[in-house]
């Protein structure tokens, strides 16, 4: 059993061993929104600031517009700063983009040199360029949180950067496997957890004969909106479909309204709401959530959000969701991009079947996917790293 696994052992309930040595912690994040990875950062920071002995600073990038995450982190008690950071973004993989990345790396190196952090926590894979910079400035412990699956080209650049981390947390076995680090003793899988926002439903949802579905995700090409809408049409538009989300602030987006016009002959059955501050009322009003990702999905946080509200999930076999959904019990799985298979599910599922699966899903959420469970396991990793600093453990060498 590795040191990290020993730290996680026995943490099925809230609570974590605390040591006398606490330190100055820097959390680096790649966005300022409130999508999946941002919500996880919020939970991580909430856990880190829970101890009065922790001094927690969060760095957010300046290449995105200020959003809702920063103020929420401040409300938790973290010090929040915005700086030019060497964040990896696909749209910036250009000669000019690499020059800006190098410039931001130099600035970050200088900024780290004067701050004397005990531990740096990198909240997404896009933040990994900060890992070797932190080690070069004397930071002895760096934790990388892998929330996204890596493709073959990603691994070429990201694995050397991950080599500068002393501990790695992956949100799913799928993500860890895609990174090529499944056998790495520094790595551990910690599934995401989310709060149950409505402890008691205010009222029973309106009765309806045909199922109501909701999709809540960024409008990225790989999120499967086209697959979903083609299947919806093929199934005869079998109820109501509500679409939440928006084009990402940074990255490639798709025009969902145009896809509806292109693929759906009865557009009145699809309600495009757009971005909302809180998806909970929409989850409550639906019978099930759809997650039709066309490629790998790191975890699919909306899956456990749906479970928390007693809603089943229909998802593609895209990695992370397969680790959460028990096919035919708490939801249903179909092969990525398989329009016919998704259409068949839409054609055969009824309201009663969806709601029964949702009840089972809520039981699974309570047992496995609460934020308290996730936070305890994250705290075990961070505490373990800080304790090894206190014991004088030598730092790992930066990978070449």
Mean pLDDT across all residues, rounded? 89
Using the coordinates above, name the CATH class of the largest domain. Answer: Alpha Beta
The CATH architecture term of the largest domain is 3-Layer(aba) Sandwich
- How many helices? The count is 15
Strand content: 15-25%
* Amount of helix: 25-40%
What do we call the CATH homologous superfamily of the largest domain?
A: Glycogen Phosphorylase B
What do we call the CATH topology of the largest domain? Rossmann fold
Primary descriptors:
globular; disordered C terminus; Rossmann fold; 400 residues; 6-stranded parallel β-sheet; 7-stranded parallel β-sheet; alpha/beta; 15 helices; 2 domains
Give the SSE map.
Layout: H1 3-8, E1 24-28, H2 36-48, E2 55-61, H3 69-76, E3 79-83, H4 95-113, E4 119-122, H5 130-136, E5 141-146, H6 152-162, E6 167-170, H7 173-179, E7 187-189, E8 212-216, H8 225-234, E9 240-244, H9 256-263, E10 270-274, H10 280-285, E11 288-291, H11 301-308, E12 312-316, H12 320-324, E13 331-334, H13 339-348, H14 351-368, H15 371-390
Parallel strand pairs: 1-2, 1-4, 2-3, 4-5, 5-6, 6-7, 8-9, 8-11, 9-10, 11-12, 12-13
Helix pairs in contact: 2-3, 2-15, 4-5, 8-9, 8-13, 11-14
Tell me about this structure:
The chain has 400 residues and is an alpha/beta fold. The chain has 2 domains: 3-193 and 370-390, Glycogen Phosphorylase B (Rossmann fold, 3-Layer(aba) Sandwich), CATH 3.40.50; 212-368, Glycogen Phosphorylase B (Rossmann fold, 3-Layer(aba) Sandwich), CATH 3.40.50.2000. The chain has helices spanning 3-8, 36-48, 69-76, 95-113, 130-136, 152-162, 173-179, 225-234, 256-263, 280-285, 301-308, 320-324, 339-348, 351-368, 371-390, and strands spanning 24-28, 55-61, 79-83, 119-122, 141-146, 167-170, 187-189, 212-216, 240-244, 270-274, 288-291, 312-316, 331-334. Strands 3-2-1-4-5-6-7 form a 7-stranded parallel β-sheet, with helices on both faces. Strands 10-9-8-11-12-13 form a 6-stranded parallel β-sheet, with helices on both faces. Strand 5 (141-146), helix 6 and strand 6 form a beta-alpha-beta unit.
